[in-house]
Design goal:
The chain has about 325 residues and is α/β, with parallel strands linked by helices. The protein contains eleven helices and twelve strands. The radius of gyration is 20 Å and the shape is globular. Bound molecules: ligand PBG.
Amino acid sequence: MFPIHRPRRLRKNETIRRMVRETSLSPDNFIYPLFVIFGKGVRKEISSMPGCFQESVDKVVKHAKEVHSLGIPSILLFGIPEHKDEIGSGAYDEHGVVQKAVRAIKDKVPGLFVITDVCMCEYTSHGHCGIIKDGDVQNDQTIELLAKEAVSHARAGADMVAPSDMMDGRVEAIRIALDDEGFSDIPIMSYAAKYASAFYGPFREAAESTPQFGDRRSYQMDPANRREALKEVALDIEEGADIIMVKPALSYLDIISDVKDAFDIPVAAYNVSGEYSLVKAAGKLGWIDEKRVMMEILTSIKRAGANLILTYFAKEAAKILNK
Ligand code: PBG
């Protein structure tokens, strides 16, 4: 009741604001995505994602060192193979580009926690996240290959695997395969509520994974659905997921919040490529204060309930937080 209640008292200066702040960000919360490409000495900037690169193994190792030195504990690796084929065989090739990168990074930067993206779309000639028959992605055949891919990543030394394909039953298939091969201690972070989003546009340039026909709406979730996210997450937890992810983050803060309230395992959120590119583009035009918008976005994702944030802003944000 006015004038007894004056909430502005607690906003008077930065010291008191700091004392009552409800949400704090730390580099500990960040996972930085990296794109590995075949070749040597390659470091090619992704035009729609300024500051992000496709890098060959030698370059990605250097980059991983830099990420680690900024206090960011973890990276997420995506691979772009030399050859793509119908069955995405580069995905589970022991000498594949991600497998090589994992070995090199774990050798040179052992303290960095290496997560691998487990999916077929970067490795298939048609760009879909699985095996195609009669124009449709075959669920049960695909999950066998995903399990093989996950095992090959674990064998290379990955600390955690992250399936992003949205096939039904893949978490269980991966869990069983990992356990059978002696990797029962390797956790699974599942892209549990992953929406069929236009915000992935720039990533598909980065990973060269645009579907050559159709779209991903028969496997990724409908952006209009909220309750279905809880079902997807519940299934993945039942199947053995250790961390569950909501993706994208910014247009799905309600989903992050719902999932956080409903389950008691760590929640990750993917601040995806399109969310990054929008900020970069507007920043470049001088239309927004890029750094402040970045910190506000990351704070909102954490405030909504994410423990972990996968973000292309990780390095820039860590530099600000480390000051
Ligand atoms: C692979 C995958 C995608 C992203 C992460 N893993 C693209 C897609 O599903 O089309 C998107 C990441 C981003 O946009 O930053 N399935």
